[in-house]
Design brief:
Elements: H1 3-13, E1 18-24, H2 30-43, E2 47-51, H3 62-73, H4 78-91, E3 96-100, H5 102-108, H6 110-120, E4 124-127, H7 136-142, E5 148-149, E6 152-153, H8 159-168, E7 173-176, H9 189-202, E8 207-210, H10 216-222, E9 228-231, H11 233-241, H12 248-265
Parallel strand pairs: 1-2, 1-9, 2-3, 3-4, 4-5, 6-7, 7-8, 8-9
Helix pairs in contact: 2-12, 3-11, 4-6, 6-7, 10-12, 11-12
Length: 266
């Protein structure tokens, strides 16, 4: 069974919510980044979204944009990101998803990507700017790998389209909590609750909430509304606030533990 699906099954059996964590590979530099990722995997995240640095991350706010710029400046590439995944897989069975934009994947070559991701132990892909209607070539390349494609639903997505996306996604459905780009804060909890209930009613898979989650208190409030939460900017901000700090792995672990404790209090 795919590791993402198995993880959500195990969490549901234990009546726990999923903590999905996004980190940009190579931020602030490849050596430190890998230690941060190792710390994150050991601190309580259930699924790792391994961000592929990109020069124009249009769905992301300033924090993740800056993380991508730091990583690119340090020489990070898609090939090196896949190497990170392979190294992490040798140490951990945590589900690993590549999170990125279609341009770098297409340029790399979809068949080549599928083979490399499968060999690295990658479990899923989340391609922010690839709608289900355009995902045919990527799906074809992934046949036989058990790598799942996760799609997103926005607050503005029409109900009929939510049903289409819910049928097409794999692993879990990523429900965006607010309009606009990624970033901390700005959450309307009542609107999220209503939208999440509508989406869960038509989704055959777990639903996770992402965008705007800052801390354990936010995670605790959102946890009852869905099957898990997704955090990105608040984790990248740990690096962004002090990219030269010698204790970044420990700082990251502490932040993840705060989020994990918030989920477990819900």
């Amino acid at each position: 069974m795919n590791r993402i699906a198995a993880t959500f099954q195990n969490l549901a059996s234990a009546q726990r919510k999923a903590l999905v964590g996004y980190l940009t590979a190579g931020d602030p530099n490849p050596e430190t980044s890998f230690e941060i990722l190792r710390a994150a995997c050991g601190a309580g995240i259930d699924v790792l979204e391994l961000g592929v640095p990109f020069s124009d991350p249009t769905a992301d706010g300033p924090v993740i944009q800056e993380a991508s710029q730091r990583a690119l400046k340090a020489g990070m590439t898609l090939t090196k990101t896949l190497d990170f995944a392979a190294r992490l897989r040798r140490e951990s069975e945590i589900p690993i998803m590549l999170f990125g934009y279609y341009n770098p994947l297409f340029k790399y070559g979809l068949d080549r990507l599928a083979k490399a991701a499968h060999a690295a132990g990658v479990d899923g892909l989340l391609v922010v700017d690839l709608p289900p209607e355009e995902a045919g070539p990527l799906k074809a390349a992934l046949q036989g790998t058990d790598i799942q494609i996760v799609f997103l639903v926005a607050p503005t997505t029409r109900p009929d389209r939510v049903k289409t996306i819910a049928r097409e996604t794999g692993g879990f459905l990523y429900l965006v909590t607010k309009a606009g780009t990624t970033g901390e804060g700005g959450l309307d909890y009542e609107a999220i609750r209503q939208h999440a209930a509508e989406v869960k009613a038509v989704s055959p898979l777990p639903v996770c909430l992402g965008f705007g989650i800052r801390n354990g208190a936010d995670a605790q409030k959102l946890a009852p509304m869905a099957d898990g939460v997704i955090v990105g900017s608040t984790l990248c901000n740990v690096v962004g606030q002090a990219p030269a700090a010698p204790d970044l792995p420990a700082r990251m672990a502490a932040k993840i533990q705060d989020l994990r404790q918030g989920l477990d209090r819900s």
